[in-house]
């Protein structure tokens, strides 16, 4: 039994013809997606074998299973297939190869809106990361050289909360008693606590981004650049006090086309 995209049921011992139709018990029914026989570079009908372009000009042969088999997981596993693709990318060093091949292209610089360095990734990070990956891949496909740097948010309450809990700090005076310098240094020490977990999760989702050349908001040059930008806004009289409605927390990525 096969199901067509129009939910038309086809009974019998059905086999897919090369023209996209279905041959079943001596009769033939054309499916809505019936088309001419595929060329060597296009996907073949379900159950056939197609030759498809592999990364960087190579050619790979893959089997395309019947949809019923895929859905029921008889001979196909999406997670295992994803892992095979990741292994291929790692073997080819695909991300860095893409960067090398587009070095002469127009720059498209991407700094990932940094997650807090003190927690593990959740659904929101994965969703936003997928959108960011789509944008940067699209720019790469347009021939641009897309630098993609991962980042870490090292400021704010999440880091302080972790340290306060670890040191048993419950009030402001205890921070002064410990010493601001020592307190800050202790905060810095946990910034890379979950780096390996983040890299494993982001890589597993199929995203391409540079973890080795990451940035941290606690870096002096990063903080000075933020203050410089704010100073430019202040001098142009673009800083004002007002009110706005914030209905949700959004992850911010910085895009700049040079």
Account of the 3D structure:
With 258 residues, the protein is of the alpha+beta class. Strand 8 (107-111), helix 4 and strand 9 form a beta-alpha-beta unit. Residues 1-65 and 251-258 have low confidence and may be disordered. 10% of the residues are buried. It has a four-stranded mixed β-sheet. The chain has a three-stranded antiparallel β-sheet with strand order 3-4-5, with no helix packed on it. The chain has helices at residues 67-72, 78-92, 94-101, 123-141, 157-167, 172-178, 180-188, 195-204, 220-235, and strands at residues 2-3, 9-10, 14-16, 22-24, 27-29, 49-53, 59-63, 107-111, 145-152, 210-216, 254-257. The chain has a domain at 1-76. Helix content is 39%, strand content 18%. This is Aminoacyl-tRNA synthetase class Ia domain-containing protein. GO terms for molecular function: ATP binding; isoleucine-tRNA ligase activity. Residues 85-245 form the Aminoacyl-tRNA synthetase class Ia domain.
């Amino acid at each position: 039994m096969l199901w067509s995209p129009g939910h038309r049921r086809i009974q019998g011992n059905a086999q897919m013809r090369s023209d996209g139709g279905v041959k079943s018990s001596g009769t033939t029914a054309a499916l809505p997606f019936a088309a001419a026989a595929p060329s060597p570079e296009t996907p073949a009908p379900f159950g056939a074998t197609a030759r498809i372009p592999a990364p960087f000009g190579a050619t790979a042969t893959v089997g395309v299973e019947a949809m019923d088999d895929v859905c029921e997981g008889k001979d196909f596993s999406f997670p295992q297939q994803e892992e095979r693709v990741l292994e291929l990318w790692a073997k080819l060093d695909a991300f860095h190869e893409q960067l090398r091949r587009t070095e002469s292209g127009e720059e498209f610089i991407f700094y990932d809106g940094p997650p807090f360095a003190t927690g593990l990734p959740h659904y929101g990070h994965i969703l936003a990361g997928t959108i960011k990956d789509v944008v940067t891949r699209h720019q790469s496909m347009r021939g641009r050289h897309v630098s993609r740097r991962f980042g870490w948010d090292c400021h704010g309450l999440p880091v302080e909360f972790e340290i306060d809990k670890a040191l048993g700090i419950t009030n402001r005076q205890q921070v002064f008693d410990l010493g601001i310098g020592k307190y800050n240094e202790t905060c810095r020490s946990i910034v890379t606590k979950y780096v390996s977990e983040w890299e494993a999760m982001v890589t597993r989702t199929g995203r391409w981004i540079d973890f080795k050349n990451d940035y941290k908001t606690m870096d002096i040059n990063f903080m000075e650049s933020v203050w410089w930008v704010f100073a430019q806004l202040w001098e142009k009289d673009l800083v004002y006090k007002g009110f706005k409605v914030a209905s949700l927390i959004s992850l911010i990525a910085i895009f700049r086309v040079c």
